[in-house]
Write a structure and sequence with these properties.
With about 375 residues, the chain is mainly β. It has 2 helices and 21 strands.
Length: about 375
């Protein structure tokens, strides 16, 4: 069973039907009509490079964010080294409770949209940066750790889908004589994900329970994009199944303003869950953004613990969830594959830039 293929189909049909707009034509198809993308000379931090990936480069790591979801300078900074923790320790305890639901679909609730992230009494437990070439065959990070989904086959470590450049890991979707290719990284090995191999966090793989997770990324501006930052719990070999939280699934020009997020509970190859959808003008601007998933259980909806999705340190959506989402260890994944958009064409090549992935853990 291709779990992610099923998740995409469910997400597109459920969330956008609720918005009275069908995206069934966005679902992955079996054929691809390629479009050649001619990239302008690459610059990054003002420097040209002949060794850079042939995809337009993002602004610098410390580039300013803009728009209504941008975080005020008094709340967040973006230092050269994010591992020190880049959010002010603010308290939201005095912020008023809102009792009336506002927006959101399938149980998701936007009543607190725009509320700032608070990491008071939390500290960085894990920080993955890419300032030097990082091994994608372990012990902390793995390429192509799971089955393919979408229209691209994930390259193994060393493939052209992975490029380290100027402090970033660039995942590239491209096409060659063998077909379409994409990239996927995850913080545990396949054996740890599926077969019960022991995980020693920050030594051999990484998982965290009850944490706030965040990735800083620059999304492709292209047709046919299927990019994601998401969490999975390791399977129990004796009782197959796992939990999933999608912090962001993005389809770029195929749904430029769409912030897709979801929960899934997998068992026997089938899932139940809640697909969320929110609109953002900033998400499609081709700039750097942070995408966050809060599983600390501190946020509430009508007194019940909720998962919260963030972008640029501001709340996007929240969902009441069962207790095990806040106590189960998760690992993270970042992917770039492709799916056929309504235009019927897919842009190759395209790239997802990753600056860092961090997990904050509440202090005891």
């Amino acid at each position: 069973m291709n779990y992610r293929h099923a998740a995409l189909s469910s997400l597109m049909l459920t969330s956008l039907a609720a918005l009275a707009a069908s995206r069934s034509s966005d679902a992955p198809a079996t054929t691809v009509t390629p479009v050649t993308v001619v990239a302008s000379p690459l610059t990054n931090n003002g420097k040209a490079s002949s060794q850079a990936p042939s995809i337009a480069a993002p602004t610098s790591r410390t580039g300013a964010l803009s728009g209504s979801l941008a975080v005020a300078a008094t709340t967040v900074v973006s230092p050269a080294s994010p591992c020190t923790g880049n959010y002010a320790q603010i308290s939201t305890a005095a912020l008023p409770e809102i009792t009336v639901k506002s927006g959101g679909i399938n149980g998701w609730d936007e009543r607190y949209k725009g509320r700032p992230l608070s990491l008071l009494n939390a500290s960085v437990d894990h920080c993955q940066t890419f300032d030097a070439n990082v091994s994608l065959v372990g012990p902390m990070l793995y390429a192509r750790g799971r089955e393919n989904f979408g229209l691209a086959s994930f390259d193994a470590a060393g493939g052209a889908a992975y490029k380290f450049y100027n402090g970033n890991l660039v995942l590239k979707a491209y096409k060659d004589a063998a077909g379409a290719h994409g990239g996927l990284i995850q913080s545990v090995s396949p054996g740890q994900a599926y077969n019960g191999v022991a995980i020693q966090p920050n030594q051999t793989g990484y998982t965290c329970a009850g944490c706030y997770w965040e990735a800083r990324m620059k999304m492709p501006v292209a047709y046919g994009t299927w990019a994601g930052f998401w969490l999975l719990s390791p399977d129990d070999p004796k009782n197959r199944g796992h939990l999933e939280v999608d912090g962001i699934e993005y389809y770029s020009l195929g749904n430029k303003r769409g912030h897709h997020h979801a929960t899934h509970r997998w068992s026997g190859g089938k899932s139940t869950g809640n697909n969320g959808y929110s609109l953002s003008d900033e998400i499609g601007n081709g700039d750097w953004h942070t995408y966050g998933i809060d599983l600390r259980g501190m946020a509430k909806i009508d007194g019940k613990p909720a998962i919260v999705i963030y972008m640029d340190g501001k709340e996007v959506d929240r969902l009441v969830a069962s207790a095990d989402y806040f106590t189960t260890p998760f690992y993270y994944l970042v992917n770039l594959t492709t799916a056929l958009p309504k235009t019927g064409v897919i842009d190759y090549p395209q790239a997802l830039w990753i600056d860092h992935v961090i997990a904050w853990k509440p202090r005891a």
